[in-house]
From TrEMBL:
Stated name of the protein: Phosphotransferase
A Gene Ontology molecular function term of the record: ethanolamine kinase activity
One Gene Ontology term, aspect cellular component: cytoplasm
CDD domains, A to Z: ChoK-like
Organism: Pukyongiella litopenaei
Amino acid sequence: MDDAQAVARIRALPCWRSEVTVAPLGGGLTNHNYLVSDGADRRVARLGEDIPVHHVLRFNELAASRAAHAAGLSPAVLHVEPGVTVFEYVDARTYGEEDVRAPGALERIVPLIRRCHREVPDHLRGPALVFWVFHVIRDYAATLRDGGSAHAALLPGFLDIAARLEADAGPFDIVFGHNDLLAANFLDDGDRLWLIDWDYAGFNSPLFDLGGLASNNGLSEAQETRMLELYFEAPADDALLRRYHAMKCASLLRETMWSMVSEITSALDLDFAAYTAENLTRFRAAHSDYMNS
């Protein structure tokens, strides 16, 4: 669907009270987002279909979005049709990676993640998914092999590494994870933070979200230790650090393979080959550090 078709689809929704103006919003690799104004009010319209190859199912995103709003973390869902969700608009600044790394930022972000993990399940309705990174890695490997990916020669090594990381990352606690903690999924309205975009939500280890937060936003080693201490409200001992770094490596491997799969499946006009190369370098560096620790 191109922009003109998307705008026409949005204009035709029955939830508007008057003629609307529609403007694209940046971001979104699994959906297209638009800012919609119908006079006094502004809303966000989010267009996206299921993407089974990436384990993105819109019924799950919708349930998680509603539960996150009920828990006080995310904007309200105002209207739903197949392929389209309309959200309350939050007048806020979108975070960049530098905001996540800024002094004092983790003291705001980590409690939000803890609330996601602990409170969202209380409001979740209907079937719920598990987002298990090691299953995703194995499934991506099958997709890459079956699709004739140029990266196929790397897959046996990836699977061996993933098996080792899965053994090292346990024992596992299970929480309800956001599972996509990019900087752009945090909004700051000046008074509080919001957490948005629940495409990959599902039950998971808390260490996956923490590892993703660190790897997606370039946290320093000292910041990673601080993050763990804030989350667990205790010093980070060697056993926890070992489990955490195993899950962080798995997070980076999954992101690398996500991009590899996107190279052969996505119609988006993005340089996935460059993104693959960037993430593969980051994964190899993290895994080397982990093996030498």
